[in-house]
Please model this.
Amino acid sequence: MTGNHEFGTEGSHAPHVASMTAPEVDEWFAREVLPLETALIQFLHRNWRNASDIADLRQDVYVQVYEAALKDIPASPRQFVFTTARNLLINRVRREQIVSIEAVADLDLLEIAEETPAPDRVVIARDELLQLQVALDRLPARHREIFLLAQIEGLAGRQIAARLGLAESTVSLHLAKATRLIADSLYGTPKDLRRGA
Amino acid sequence: MSEQHSTPATEIEQRAALWVQQKHFWVWTAENQTALDGWLAQSPAHRVAYIRLDAALRRSNRLAALNAPRKTFVPEPRFRPFVSKMVAAFALVALIGGAITYLDPGPKVSTYSTQIGGRQTIALADGTHIEMNTNTRLRVALSKTERKVWLEKGEAYFQVAHNAKRPFTVFAGDSRVVDLGTKFLLRHEPGRLEVDLLEGQVEIAKQKDTGARATVLNPGDTAIVTAAAVSVKHKTPREIVEKLGWRRGVVTFDRTTLADAVAEFNRYNRHQLIITDPATARITIGGTFDVSNVETFIDIARQDFGLHTESRPDATVISK
Model:
C-alpha cells in the first residue's frame, strides 16, 4: 500500500493549518488572488489617474499580499487584496505629496470590491474556455502560431525553431510575449483598458 | 500592445516571462533551476510575476487539454485573409488542408466518469478494455492513426489491444504513458501518478520534451511519477493482485497503517473516516475488506483495537 502515504499523513493531522509553505502560498496565490486581477486593475484605473503606473501598482499590491500570506493566509482574499490596494494608493498619495487627495479620499473602496460577487466556480470552467479562445485570438499571428505549436501540439521550443526555421532566441521571445498576453487576457486587463490590443 | 513606458514592473514581467517559457518549453537543467531559484529569491516582485505567468500558462495548457477536439483552437483568423484571396474551389482545398493539420482528423471524444464508490468497465471499439475505479474521470479519443486517453483523476486498469500502427497513449497530469502491448494500472492524484505494469511494456514520459529520457517499465514494475522525479520499484505478483482488488470490490491491507487504510476507505465512501491522533494513525492492520463496508471497519477499530469511535452524519472520528 505504498500508494497511500500522502493521504495517510494528511488524515492523521488536525485539519487546521496555521501557516503554509512557500509552494502552498504560490498555489493559493494562483487560485485565490490572480482571478481577482480584472477587478483589481479596474479598481486601480478608477482610482489612479496616471495609467502608466498601473503595472507597478499591481505588482506592489501582489508583493504585499504575497508577503502577508507567507505569514498568515488572509481569510477573505478578496477583501484583503482590495484593502491592500486602497492602503497602497493612500500611502502613495501621501508619500508623493500629491495635493489633491480627493483621488482616493472619498472612495468607498471596499464597497467597490464587494459589488461584484465572487464568481461561481462552476461557471468559470466554461467561461475560461471562451476567455482562452479570446486570448488566443488576440495574439499577433506569429505569436499565436508559435504558442499553439508549443501549448496545443506539445512541441518543444527547439522543435518549433526547427520547423519554422527561426532562431531559438526568436522563438523564446515570442513564447515569452505570448505568455504575457495570455496572462493579461486570462487574468486581467479589462478589455476597454487594454493598451491598443 | 507596445510598451510605451518601460516600468520596473514590466521589466520584471518580461524577465519572468522568459524564465517561464524556458521552463515550460525548453530543455530544463538543474543549473537552470538554480539560476531561476536565485532570481526568484532576489525579490518577491520577481516571485509574484513568475507565479502569475506560470499559472496563466498552466491554465491555458489545462484548458487546451479539456478541449481535446481542438476545433475551438483552430486559429481561424490565420486562414481568413488567405482564403479571401483565393478562388472558391481552391480556397476549399486550402481550408480542408488546414483543418486536417489542426484537427488531426477530429476524433470524437467521449467522457466517462464514476461516482465515489462507483466502478465501470468500458469496452472500446478497438478491443481495449478500461476498468474505472471509484471517483474517476477519463476521456477517450480514437482516430485511425492513434488512440488517446486522458485520465483526469482517479484510477483505471487498462487492457490494451496492442496495435503498433495505432499507438495507445494515456495522458495524466504532465505525463504520458505509451502502451507497448499491455495490461497496466494507472492512478492519478493531484501532483502524482502511479503506474503498475502487469503485462507487456509501457513507456512513461513527460508530455513536454524536457530532454529527460523516457522510463520503460517491465512487468511487475511500479512507477511513481511526481513533478520532481520518476521512481521505479518492483512488486511481487501478490502485491499487484492485491492492488487490483478493487476490481472485485475489495481492498487488502498488509501491515498497513490505520492512516493509510482510512485514506483508502475514504476514496470509496462519502461517509469519511477521520483519525485525530498520531498514535492511532500509526497502528497497523491487515486483512481484506469490502470497500463499501465501512461499518465493519469501524466495528473492528472499536472491538479489536479498543479505539473510541464517534459517529457523525457524514463522518466517523476514530481516536484512542
Observations:
- Residues 110 and 135 of chain A are 29 Å apart (CA to CA).
